Amino acid sequence: MLLGILLIKKLKFFTIAQIDKKTLIAIFLLKVLAGISYIYLFESYYASGDTWGYFKQGVMWQKTLWTEPQIFLKLVFGSNPGYGIPEELTNYFYPGHHIYWNNNGSNFMCRFTAIVSIITFNKFYPIAVFTAFLSFIGLTAIYKTFVPWYNGNKWYLIISILLVPTVVFFTSGVHKEAFMSFFIGIILYHLTLSLNGRLKFWRVLIIVAACLLVSFIRSYLLLMLIPALLAYIISKYVRLKPFYVYCIIYLLVASTALFLIENKNINFRLYENLIVKQTQFQWDVGNSSVYVKPLKPTTKSFITAIPNALQNTLLRPFPKDANALIKWLVLIEVNLVLLFMLFAIIKSKLRLLRLPSIAVFALFFSLSVFVIIGYIVPNLGAIVRYKAVVLPLFIAALVFLSSTSNKKMLVKTP
């Protein structure tokens, strides 16, 4: 933690004109507290959950470093074809944890905890400092990307990107969301710098590496990110309004996907994967289940499922769903976001054509991820956790939308 504070004080990356170092350190410490609370909450009230499973499995693998280093190298750095466990590795899993090997995201988390637990001497809580700092870097990168486009009160962006409660909490724990926040922030930050005349070979390498890791951990996020990034790049070089560019790109992508779904002669796996994922989630919905409209391999099915998907991600939990304190807190946050969305729509009169490219990116990308999550996830807790990665982008887009009534508050090209 002290190292994190020192890095914030010394690194140029954290020198931001609109935020002093004391504020940044306070936000980082808040995330560390959230990460520690995340571990404690899941240990005390949710039978440990995956976060503890990753840690225990990672420590088991880490211990082989001292007794069977060749096994450690295979477990932590070896290839994973995505099916089956090599026979020589089958004895290095706790009961019920074999599924972690074939799930790329879970496999990554076990490998991460195996490596970091060496530094933390097999203690779990200090690992939360690592994940809190990584997500803090990603969210700071997102803020630094957005702020040059905005001339309004910078605290609106600080709150929407860095201080939303569910974002602070779920992106600080030892789970995949911390890494997704980090990678998406890094991709957007370095791509923006590259488009603004600071293109470097090492930036391209960072962007490519981050995209590959996003694909490895949460492949659906990269699928949603690609059209948004493509539109973001194109809008830099054409005279069309950014909103038109994004509409064209997304219409082309959606039309192609729906055509492939309807054409039975073409082997198109994406919709099949979504249907399979939806089915898998139905096997273990937990205590906070919500209705998810069953998907079928037809255009009509995917289109008609969108309202239900957005209801689950944008509107839930309802008061009837809130049977515990944490759900009431989430309910309050959801309703505050909805009120702000309504305020932004009324104040802006939906002047979407005035939005700068970065805001349109945030709007299209976040809504597309909300739809995918709503398609397949029938559990409110998982929905809240998954959407925490893109919720800062969505709320930041609303900040920009609410400012379109005053042209001076927005910057077309930073």
Description:
It is a single chain. The longest helix has 25 residues, at 21-45. The protein has 20 helices and no strands. It is mainly alpha-helical and 414 residues long. The two termini are 34 Å apart. Helix 7 (125-146) packs parallel to helix 10 (176-198) and helix 11 (201-217) runs antiparallel to helix 12. 71% of the residues lie in helices and 0% in strands. It has helices at 2-10, 21-45, 49-67, 69-77, 99-102, 104-119, 125-146, 154-162, 165-170, 176-198, 201-217, 219-237, 242-262, 270-282, 299-304, 306-315, 325-348, 357-376, 380-387, 391-402.
Summarize the structure.
The protein contains 20 helices and no strands. With 414 residues, the chain is mostly helical.
Q: Enumerate the spans where pLDDT stays under 50 for 5 or more consecutive residues.
A: none
The level of helicity is: over 70%
- Give me the count of strands: 0
Structural class estimated from helices and strands: mainly alpha
Beta content: under 5%
Helical region count?
20
Q: Mean of the pLDDT scores?
A: 88
User: What's the order of the H and E elements?
Assistant: HHHHHHHHHHHHHHHHHHHH
Through-space gap between termini: 34 Å
- Gyration radius over CA: 21 Å
